[in-house]
Write a structure and sequence with these properties.
two-stranded antiparallel sheet, 12 helices
């Protein structure tokens, strides 16, 4: 039902193509404040122009860089909202959930569950291998980081969820007339989007198993639950607690977090553990709580345009 909501409107391939281009243009416009800040510092301080991502990320204080990076997603999410409302003339609720209103309890439950797991595993990892970390905590910078993260990370993660699990998943579903094609495509594209992250260069392409696997988890949550609430909560908790708790010199976001990971990164069991063990357990927890049934139909079934019933209600 969530994917088939795209059939309620005169959505066509050209609208999704133009809409995606508009969103990407807004994404690049969102990078202009960062570019302007770099040029201003070069001009005022006669600093050398950064030529690599690492040099750009180290050009300002971590908090300023973090703010400018996340500001990009404010522009992108605003553009996505306007594309859905104005180009597709579709209620934004319909790319969020099949329910009559957003279920905030689902968002908070998913956020709390994954947030608690992240905190616990971070604490355990620190006490098991204290030599892999140094305490990076500085009250002033951490408080600034907290404000930036709490305000902007939900915008960043919401943009990615609305783009992949909402907008594109519904678009691919409408074109393919089934559910497995949008699940596979959005998961692979979501994972591949991280190709330019420094983690890939440091750990190798095996890390894409984690990124693509996470895309599949978020897609499965959306399809099984007929809405994005669970994926919105999970993604926000993953990025927010990750930014506040641990940073490393080889990650895409270098923050004034509590800990800094100084161990040499390796991609092996650490990559497979979440995808092969933790994520399935998470799916079982959600399935028990929300009484999911019909897995095969919800993940691979066909999609049909919705029809009007005699009472003028929407039916599948």
């Amino acid at each position: 039902m969530f994917l088939s909501q795209a059939f309620r409107h005169q959505n066509e391939l050209w609208k999704y193509a133009i809409g995606f281009i508009i969103i990407m243009v807004a994404y690049f416009i969102g990078q202009l404040p960062l570019t302007a800040a770099v040029l201003l510092k070069v001009f005022l301080e006669d600093a050398p122009m950064p030529t690599t991502n690492d040099e750009v990320f180290g050009f300002f204080t971590p908090n300023l860089t973090f703010f400018l990076m996340l500001l990009i997603f404010v522009f992108a999410l605003a553009a996505l909202y306007l594309v859905v409302k104005k180009l597709h003339k579709q209620p934004f609720l319909e790319v969020t959930t099949a329910r009559k209103k957003v279920d905030w309890n689902r968002i908070f439950f998913s956020f709390s569950l994954w947030g608690a797991f992240t905190v616990i595993t971070t604490v355990v990892a620190y006490y098991l291998n204290p030599g892999d970390y140094i305490v990076n905590f500085k009250l002033g910078p951490f408080l600034i980081l907290s404000v930036i993260a709490i305000v902007l990370i939900p915008i960043q993660t919401s943009f990615e969820e609305y783009l992949f699990r909402g907008y594109l998943m519904q678009g691919f579903g409408m074109m393919a007339r089934n559910k497995w094609v949008p699940l596979v495509l959005t998961s692979v594209i979501f994972g591949s989007m991280h190709l330019l992250n420094p983690e890939v260069e440091k750990m190798g392409y095996i890390i894409l198993v984690y990124y693509i696997g996470t895309g599949f988890l978020l897609g499965i949550l959306t399809l099984m639950d007929e809405g994005m609430e669970l994926s919105l909560g999970f993604h926000a908790a993953n990025n927010l607690f990750g930014a506040l708790l641990v940073t490393a010199d080889w990650t895409v976001f270098k923050t004034d977090s509590i800990l800094r990971d100084i161990a040499e990164p390796t991609a092996g069991f650490d990559v497979l553990l979440p995808v092969c063990i933790v994520y399935p357990i998470l799916l079982i927890i959600f399935s028990k709580k929300y009484n999911w049934t019909g897995w095969k139909e919800k993940l691979t079934g066909k999609l049909y345009p919705e029809l009007k019933t005699e009472n003028n209600e929407i039916a599948n």
